[in-house]
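ugh finaly. both done.
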Amino acid sequence: MICSFTQNHTYSNSGNLSTMKIKLTFLIAFGFLLLIRSYAQNAELRIELDLKNDYKDEKVYPMGENGFLLQSFEIKANGGLVGCRNDFYSTNFKLIKSVTVPVKERTLYTDSFDENGVNYTMIRNRRDYFAIVTSDANNQECIKTEGKLADLGVLSEMKVSGGKAVFKCTGKRGSSLLIVELKSGKSKYVPVKVEKFTSKALSVLDFQVFDEEILVFINAITDKIKEDLYIAILDLEGRQKEVFNVTKTVKEKLITAAATKIQNRYVITGTYSKTRSDKSQGVFIGEIENKKLNFMKFYNFLELKNFTGYLSQKKQDRIERKKNSKAEKGEELLMNYSIVTHPLIECADGYIFLGEAFYPTYTTYTTQMATGTGGVSTQVHTVFDGYQYTHATLAKFDRSGNLIWDNTFAMWPIYKPFRIKKFISFRQGQETAELAFSERNIIWYKVFNQNDGWIIRDNSKEIIETDLEGDKVRRSFSNIDYWYDNNFIAYGIQSISNKEVKRSRKVFFVNNISFSNF
């Protein structure tokens, strides 16, 4: 089922909108009027939303020169429905239009995809309901697609092409793709199939959509010591057109993989392991043409410049000694890391790889229970506590897969996500690679020369101050995404206290960050 929504909403003191106030002004005012600060040709704008008991799950989606979308969900249901609110803003932070789309209550955000000023957000409940809200910043209109969906696993890596939304599905029954028709809401699970392999021996590493074809990277366990990468090509209906083995003559196991299509060639990159470990031990790059592997080259993490620089000097020295000791014996020191890789970036004379390293963290707690003999039994429980990100690597390869340069830098986000995500936002200049990411209330901005990998600029900047005199930020969580031209957009949550007005508040903020004079 598909529905269209084009209604306007204004911010008022009535109904559930009374506590979600957009505060936007050009003067410092005492009370709760908020500030926009402008600087000549480097304007920095800000809005705040008081977080109370009416809306939740605020998210910001940059839409290029069409502005940005601020999306949130009502907390209180009415007749079994809640509103998915879509606020369209211009690049100068003026609210153009607000559209509320009703969806079923008790639904959770699943994934989203942006392209050409259009956002697609997927939500679903724990039973069989799903909805995809399409928000078009070109005309400020929203369309809702609803349908029923069997729960076969976790959906991720959403992509949209040719009127179809495609997801990677990972569950107890193995890996598959989910294809949803946006016009009708009809959905179809597409299991991956490779020769004589069982579903348990196959898993989807990633998929991408090129020219209305779905390129699926499939890891196949061939025997106890060997795993191969297969590529399957499907049409948007889910029909498998062909499948072929990429790594038949390769000993290494590919852990992550992503591709860029250049004419009739696919350039793939990612991480690999030389053992049975599911952790990465290095970076690879390869080229596929006419189902054949032209080349595939591998680079141990420890060959990369400053890869262990985030560690203490004592630990770095210890690793270097182990590396030299192994080398004297003709062996190679391998270190295991978990890496989330960005899509391969094509530049004038090669390709740029970007990966972020992380590790899972756990917390423990104890419980006590009375035993039948009158004693006490103590149990220790270990609970997953999110992924801690530590550092990132940027590297450039030439067209033949030779490593030209690499650079590694530390990053330590304030919060640990429970799902693997990418913290770094990337912008490609004519001869530069520009990276931005946030730590607490600080935005880091790094500019690398694409020719030699040297850092041209390495700056940090505090997110624009809050809007009331006497404000003190007690806690801040922020994200940053590339927006348009030389602008990035930062957003997140801040806990603020103010002794002068004797009030503390928790806000969701959105900031424009321009680095032109940074």
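ok and the 2nd:
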Amino acid sequence: MALAHTDASASAPSCAAARPVAGGYPGAALALAELSGGRITFISASPAFAARLGASQDVGGRRLEEVCGHDDLRRIQGLVERCAQGRRPGRIDRALRTGETPDGVRVWAYPMDWGPAGAVQVILSIPPTGRSHHLTTHSETLFDHLGPISSGMLYVYDIQQRRTRYIHPQLAESLGLSPTGAGLAEVQDRLHPSDVLVLQRHLESMAGLGDHEVCETQLRLRGADGEWRIVQSRARVFSRTPDGLVRRVIGVASDVTAAVAQTNALAQAKADVARAELDERRRIGRELHDSTTQHLVAIGLSLAALERRTVFDESHQAILRDIRNSIAAAHREIRTFSFMLHPPQASGGDLAERLRVFADGFGRRASLRISVDVVGQPRDASSAMEGALFRIFQEALMNVHRHTAARSVRVVLNYVGAEVSLMVEDDGGKLASDRIPVVDHETGVGIGSMRGRLIELGGRLDLESGDGGLRLKAQLPLARVAEIKPARRAKRVAGEERSFAPRDREIRPERAPPRLA
């Protein structure tokens, strides 16, 4: 593995004299350390690692400075910090020198990706002198302890041998795999037929991983209880062959079945709420148009009948004109509101066309000139995103109509990069205070509702001062950006492609797996 080699100069001995275990220091000494707030704390360590530090007891839960002297403390802390900040492995030489190891030992650090928020976890390794890094009994014991405290269970997969060299006992038990190591065929026997190509691509990605890359996938596997489980796997390079090919990868497998089911249920609940909201808006729009409008018509007819039967003087005529004007204004407001709540063709066509249709109808009813322009190449967005932008567009126009003296509105739907934005700008004049109100603090329910819609989808809402009035800008990511960039595809897979012949396996309807997120 092409690792960052740092700080190879000699250093004076500083840690307490190590107490060798029987037979010297057998196996690779490993520890899991966490860097948080500038402090390094050991989470777990093998006995060999504790002995290398000269610790007479378990170092789990203790800080680095509690078990290591000043000089080696500085070097190990620098190694961990460089490893965590650069997200790449590194090493120091001639560290932890004792009477038995006067030249010191080499300490490796490997960054891991399952640490809690605000902290980075690093595996520290002190390989035996003259031996390459490989799994030992102590390594497996440490991995057994690491599994329950990470976000999943650890495994080590040998690309060349096409089998796991280590698999956490709990993971093996839950999936019905051999705890001593599972071959590729054994995993494939439990794989859902639709995910065969997914596994093949994942193995190809493993074989082509760079030293600082992580590959990730989700697979459906039949558990030991016969139920389908959705397993998320994240892996990175653990060791390479002398010619530079990936030999082994270390990964974390997590059962995300419940999380996926919860995500699907939440998405369905959101869809149900959105559908109920749309139905309620339509109902209110119909009621306003069919019922309230008829009452206003009846009031107008009654007023006309009263005028025919009664002679009013000039002062009474002024009152009657005010009443007729108020009825006409109420008619216009109801027509505008009912159109906003239940616009025609609101659910058909692409987003730009829906915006133009609504702008045309709303503009005629509200006496507004509304222009809608599209910038960039329109790309597919989820129905939830398009629905949110359309509702925000409606709410923004209604705010312009009700709260400003604007005569025209400019709307721009902009597709740029992996983002879509909607800008609505009016010419209703600048704010008297020349200060933009803060969203949710100085704005009404409408603006807060817009912002809430966007936050749910990972977007944001901004209010700015425009050329002649107020500018509202809603931004949404077209797709959530993955935390880890997928690894490049491998050019060679060491013959593993030949092992993926599809198999005919029937799945009973009651055993059908849940769909992936």
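summary for the 2nd one i guess: The chain has a mean pLDDT of 76.
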